[in-house]
Amino acid sequence: MSEKGRAEKKYYVLREKAVPEVLLKVMEAKRLLESDRAATVQDATEAVGISRSSFYKYKDDIFPLHENTKGKNITFIIQMDDEPGLLSDVLKVVAGYGANVLTIHQTIPINGIAMLTLSIDTHPTMENTGDMFEELEGLRGIHYLKILGRE
Predict the structure, then answer these.
(1) CA distance 51 to 65
(2) Cα-Cα-Cα-Cα dihedral of 64, 66, 71, 72, to 10°?
(3) What is the Cα Rg of the chain in Å?
(4) What is the CB neighbour count within 10 angstroms for residue 3?
(5) Per-residue tens of pLDDT for the chain, all 151 residues
(6) Which runs of consecutive H residues, i.e. helices, occur in the chain?
C-alpha cells in the first residue's frame, strides 16, 4: 500500500476528563461484556446508552492504560506481505524498543499475505509503545496493525 493510501495512525494518552463521553461509554460497554454483566452487545449498549454502531465504530480504538511496575503485556496482529526478512525487521523494531516477545505465531501465507500475532512484555521504562506501533506500521510490506489486548 502506498504512503498516500495508508491512513496515518497515532496514539495518544488522555486524561479521562478529555475523552468524549461516547468513548467512555464504549469502554463501559466493553467492561460489561468482559465481566459477563451483559450477555450481548445489544444488552451492553442499551445499558450504557449508546448505539451498537457507535460501539462497533470505536471498540477497537479505545482501551484502558494499565500502569504497573512489571511492564505490560500487549497482544497485537499484523497483516504483512510474505517477503524474506520482513518478520526479522518486525522483531528488530520490537527488540529495539526493549520489549520482550512472549509468543509469536505466523500463519501460512495465502496469496502472498501472512498474519502475524505477537504478544510482548514491554519494559517498565518503555515510554511510548505508540512510537513502536507507528514504526512497525511504517515498515515496507506491513498492511495493518491492530492491538488485540493489553494486560
Answers:
(1) 24
(2) -40
(3) 17
(4) 7
(5) 444 445 566 777 777 888 899 999 999 999 898 888 999 999 999 999 999 999 999 988 887 765 443 458 899 999 999 999 999 999 999 999 889 999 999 999 999 999 999 999 987 667 678 888 889 999 999 998 988 887 7
(6) 21-34, 41-48, 52-58, 86-96, 129-138
Using CA atoms, how far residue 122 sits from 45, 115, 127, in Å, is: 32, 21, 9
Residue 115 contacts by C-beta under 8 Å, 6 or more apart in sequence? 77, 78, 79, 80, 106, 107
- Looking at domain 72-150, its CATH class is alpha beta
Non-local (6+) Cβ contacts of 44 within 8 A are 29, 30, 32, 33, 38, 55
- Residue 74, Cβ neighbours under 10 Å: how many? 21
Q: Is the pTM of this model over 0.70?
A: no
The two counts, helices (H) then strands (E), for the chain are: 5, 4
Nearest of 48, 72, 66, 69 to residue 58 by alpha carbon:
48
Q: Are 87 and 94 in contact (CB under 8 A)?
A: no
